[in-house]
Design goal:
The protein is mainly alpha-helical. The chain folds into two domains: 68 residues, no CATH class; 47 residues. It has a two-stranded antiparallel ribbon with strand order 1-2. A hairpin with a 2-residue loop joins strand 1 and strand 2.
């Protein structure tokens, strides 16, 4: 809990001590588990720390939090994490040339549409001129 003019290292140590004190005071961690994972938000709220402390304080992030998770896993409170997660297999693009052909097709369509818009704008300008003349002369068709 830093304040103006405080030392970040000392604040970090105080936050770590606050977390350790909270950890010692808790007997049952089950209320802090959400969807099989220890909830950082709930732990932060109950321990009196801000949530970002668990991500920015190296002592809590790298030592205390993993130790707590390991302890809860060995005690059976949390489920064991998978030791060897499933390997991610990268898919190759189906046809690299297809993308280039599609880009070219879209560019050609875009150019055709731009030409059509230009032609329609010219026609609109001509009709607006006619409308203005009819309006000023009082010869509107309706």
């Amino acid at each position: 809990m830093s304040s103006a003019g405080s030392n970040g290292v000392l604040d970090g140590r105080a936050n770590a001590q606050c977390f350790l004190d909270w950890q010692k005071s808790v007997k049952d961690f089950k209320p802090f588990i959400h969807q099989g994972v220890l909830s950082v938000s709930r732990v932060a709220r109950e321990s009196g720390l801000k949530r970002n402390v668990f991500y920015t304080n190296p002592e809590i992030r790298d030592v205390l939090w993993p130790n707590l998770l390991h302890r809860l896993e060995t005690d059976g409170v949390l489920k064991q994490r998978v030791a060897n997660p499933v390997e991610v297999v990268m898919r190759e693009p189906k046809r690299p040339g297809m993308g280039d052909a599609r880009i070219k097709q879209i560019q050609e369509e875009n150019e055709a549409l731009k030409a059509e818009v230009s032609e329609l704008r010219k026609r609109l300008e001509r009709f607006q001129g006619m409308d203005e003349v009819l309006h000023t002369t009082g010869r509107l068709p309706w």
